[in-house]
Amino acid sequence: KFAIASVFMWTAPLLILQAYKRDLLPGFSSLSPEVQTIVCGLLAVVSVNVVIAFYILSAMREPPTSTEPKPDPEFVSRARASVEAL
Amino acid sequence: MRAADSSSWRHALLYISPYTFAAIGIAISIGVSVLGASWGIYVTGSSLIGAAIKAPRITSKNLISVIFCEAVAIYGVIVAIILQTKLESVTRDYQHTAESMRAGYSIFASGIIVGFANLVCGICVGVIGSSCALSDAQNSTLFVKILVIEIFGSALGLFGVIVGIIMSAQATWPKAT
């Protein structure tokens, strides 16, 4: 999931920038060059943030796992005994 | 005008080609952004790996911090590509006109803004992400609260990117008449 999110994070803004270079974005050519640059840049930044938001949502929805290691009971009892001996 | 003025520092600075400034700006925007992102990733990653030994459940959620740091590098790439598209060739006669100098300085300033904003953003997100991993390993209820702080830290890089893009939008080179 992390790898997929990383790939999308890189490809989404690069695709938007390429589409801007090749005049594939509809309605763009009617804007002035300054506005085109600003809109294209902000679109690319927003696309990165959309991917981040999706990743955060999917990570928060994951069920909690119970794979934490349990300490060895003999080790715990010996450690407790040594502390009590002090 | 004194004869010494032609060899003064002012003369030297004014006659540096605007393309030099523009190229340095593009290099700074990507180079320093990646520096910030990598700094953040190694600070977060080392804490995350250490904390995950005793609490492996923290791994998937705390990769969000690494994603935030990576986004910082991507902002630098986006702005570097935008700045690169702003470079145009002008003839030698127009190279040191006011409009050319303005374009060169705009691209230079845009690169510095984005580069250094992303540098501090990457460090900020990295340190917060490291604390997030360590505290999540102890108490999972703290994760969301620290994530909010991380989002605010990530916004610092966004401010720099937005200003950098607006700055570069007005970089226009003179057309030969």
Automatic annotation (TrEMBL), chain A:
The keyword Nucleotide-binding does not apply. Keywords: Cytoplasmic vesicle, Endoplasmic reticulum, Membrane, Transmembrane, Transmembrane helix. Residues 62-86 are annotated as: Disordered. GO terms for biological process: vacuolar proton-transporting V-type ATPase complex assembly. The keyword Transmembrane helix applies. InterPro entries: Vma21. The chain crosses the membrane at residues 35-57. It comes from Selaginella moellendorffii (Spikemoss). Pfam families: VMA21. This is Vacuolar ATPase assembly integral membrane protein VMA21 homolog. GO terms for cellular component: cytoplasmic vesicle; endoplasmic reticulum membrane.
Automatic annotation (TrEMBL), chain B:
SUPFAM superfamilies: F1F0 ATP synthase subunit C. GO terms for molecular function: proton-transporting ATPase activity, rotational mechanism. Gene3D superfamilies: lithium bound rotor ring of v- atpase. Its main location: membrane. Keywords: Hydrogen ion transport, Ion transport, Membrane, Transmembrane, Transmembrane helix, Transport. It is a multi-pass membrane protein. Residues 24-83, 108-167 form the V-ATPase proteolipid subunit C-like domain. The chain crosses the membrane at residues 12-33, 63-83, 103-130, 142-167. It is found in: Membrane. GO terms for cellular component: membrane; proton-transporting V-type ATPase, V0 domain. PANTHER family: V-TYPE PROTON ATPASE PROTEOLIPID SUBUNIT. V-ATPase is a heteromultimeric enzyme composed of a peripheral catalytic V1 complex attached to an integral membrane V0 proton pore complex. Belongs to the V-ATPase proteolipid subunit family. Proton-conducting pore forming subunit of the membrane integral V0 complex of vacuolar ATPase. V-ATPase is responsible for acidifying a variety of intracellular compartments in eukaryotic cells. This is V-ATPase proteolipid subunit C-like domain-containing protein. The lineage of its organism: Eukaryota, Viridiplantae, Streptophyta, Embryophyta, Tracheophyta.
